[in-house]
Q: What sequence folds into this?
């Protein structure tokens, strides 16, 4: 297979471009989108590359249709992706719920900009964290990944596809205008060195009868692909194991939703990914994710230089969330700081996880600029003094 | 080293930053390149930041610039606070009237005189910067220009870069 970009070497590219190339290398062959700053470069790259790898890149009339199109593509067997930013992400919420309910593997990229509404189109934010997790209605779970560098945007896009296929679920790659538009040197591996996961297909006609049951006892049903000989019913209504609508039976609803939530929750350990920095002997912890984590690493070094034993927990996955790990950290440190480019979102999850065992302080920043390391240091020092 | 280019939309400020970044990447250095511009495609401020280091880079934007290249007064006014006190200020001497010590040349005029296209001002300024600072090798920038500028415009862009480079050697 020939790729329309260099592989097996490093390149100097934008985060958006890295996401597009990674998607192609992950096997994505269907992209549907609607242009929006700061995600348009993903679409531009897909429009350029897809025809060269026998894939499809299509501009839909809006974001509602874009996510609908990739759900359809996934049901005929394609690995599929769309990308947008806040305003478009809001429009995708209805069909994101449909993808969760129908257990459709898709990857949705949200390159965050400041909101609400059209907000600051060219500037970064982390205001969509809660929306990514809870934006669609009803009880549910899904997976949300948060890259901090262009290399991570590349690596996590491949992981997003693998997780979507493995758990038959939508995966959100939650990045931001800064990572999307930043250029860095990225190592692009040889395609044969990239581990790829493909969804479980029904082994026979009997298995294909239960596209929404737990026939393997792993909570993840095999997915019959349209056009491969099986008759399958797919609906957003509450359905039984065969996919038939059953909208008033409490037990069936409970069983379905519990499985959809548990296939993520029970596999937390496999899904969750994080890095720590100087955390082992820390007395003060910073919990950070995405672009702000870069400044947080520098802040930890600066705080250590000033005699404050700081450490960092950098979350690469913000949902599912490891509340227990936060509690353990809270038992070790006396304060946890959460710098976020919003007015407090992940902060609430950290606070819940800390369970009162350490003080949790928010370091908010909005308006489009990433926290500088100095700002994080200043906020930590101010609070450390006021104890 | 932190380098910041500042001008107005349409001057190719971001491309100058990208090419400098690519040249650093060609030399195997770590590099982060970011930009800041208003939603207007022409006329608003436009800033390109390039941070180059042998060590891992955690910074995203230039906070204390070692070098500021200002191609328009608006760009200079927006960014002058980010230049270190002992930092190097390079300006288009026709278009920017700085209120501190500076070096520079009439980059836009030089661009018009050599290529006939004012738009190549970004390459002239880049050449001047590379000659004055030696942050990357001339050859690396030339390779980056070949990779990054639109097909068919390599010649004029290289010409503009070399004129700026020669001016910087004076």
A:
């Amino acid at each position: 297979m020939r790729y329309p970009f260099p592989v097996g070497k490093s390149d100097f590219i934008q985060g958006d471009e890295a996401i597009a190339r990674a998607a192609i290398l992950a096997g994505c062959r269907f992209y549907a989108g609607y242009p929006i700053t700061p995600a348009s470069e993903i679409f531009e790259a897909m429009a350029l590359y897809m025809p060269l790898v026998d894939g499809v890149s299509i501009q839909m009339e809006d974001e509602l249709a874009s996510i609908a199109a990739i759900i359809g593509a996934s049901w005929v067997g394609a690995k599929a992706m769309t990308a947008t930013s806040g305003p478009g992400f809001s429009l995708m919420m209805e069909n994101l719920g449909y993808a969760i309910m129908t257990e459709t593997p898709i990857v949705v990229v949200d390159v965050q900009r400041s909101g609400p509404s059209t907000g600051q189109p060219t500037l970064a934010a982390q205001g969509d964290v809660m929306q990514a997790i809870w934006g669609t209605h009803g009880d549910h779970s899904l997976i949300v990944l948060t890259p901090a560098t262009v290399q991570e945007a590349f690596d996590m896009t491949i992981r997003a596809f693998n997780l979507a296929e493995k758990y038959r679920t939508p995966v959100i790659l939650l990045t931001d205008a800064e990572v999307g538009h930043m250029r860095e040197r990225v190592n692009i591996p040889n395609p044969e060195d990239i581990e790829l996961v493909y969804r479980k297909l029904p082994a026979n006609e009997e298995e294909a009868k239960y596209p929404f049951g737990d026939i393997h006892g792993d909570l993840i049903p095999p997915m019959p692909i349209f056009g491969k000989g099986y008759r399958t019913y797919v609906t957003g209504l509450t359905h039984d194991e065969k996919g038939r609508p059953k909208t008033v039976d409490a037990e069936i609803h409970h069983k379905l939703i519990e499985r959809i939530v548990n296939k993520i929750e029970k596999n937390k350990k496999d899904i969750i990914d994080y890095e720590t920095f100087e955390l082992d002997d820390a007395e003060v912890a910073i919990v950070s994710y995405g672009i702000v984590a870069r400044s947080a690493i520098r802040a930890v070094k600066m705080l250590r230089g000033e005699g404050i034993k700081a450490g960092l927990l950098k979350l690469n996955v913000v949902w599912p969330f490891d509340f227990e790990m936060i509690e353990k950290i809270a038992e070790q440190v006396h304060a946890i700081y959460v710098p976020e480019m919003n007015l407090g979102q992940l902060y609430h999850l950290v606070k819940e996880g800390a369970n009162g065992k350490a003080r949790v302080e928010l370091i908010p920043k909005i308006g489009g600029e990433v926290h500088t390391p100095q700002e994080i240091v200043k906020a930590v020092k101010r609070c450390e003094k006021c104890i | 080293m932190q380098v910041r280019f500042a001008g107005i939309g349409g001057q190719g400020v971001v491309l100058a930053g990208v090419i400098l970044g690519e040249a650093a990447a060609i030399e195997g250095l770590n590099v982060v390149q970011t930009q800041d511009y208003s939603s207007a495609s022409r006329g608003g401020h436009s800033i390109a930041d390039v941070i180059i280091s042998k060590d891992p880079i955690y910074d995203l934007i230039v906070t204390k610039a070692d070098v500021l290249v200002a191609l328009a007064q608006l760009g200079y006014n927006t960014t002058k606070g980010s230049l270190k006190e002992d930092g190097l200020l390079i300006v288009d001497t026709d278009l920017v009237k700085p209120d501190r010590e500076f070096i520079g040349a009439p980059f836009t005029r030089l661009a018009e005189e050599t290529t006939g296209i004012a738009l190549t001002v970004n390459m002239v300024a880049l050449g001047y910067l590379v000659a004055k600072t030696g942050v990357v090798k001339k050859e690396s920038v030339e390779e980056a220009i070949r990779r990054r500028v639109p097909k068919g415009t390599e010649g004029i862009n290289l010409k503009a870069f070399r004129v700026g480079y020669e001016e910087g050697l004076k």
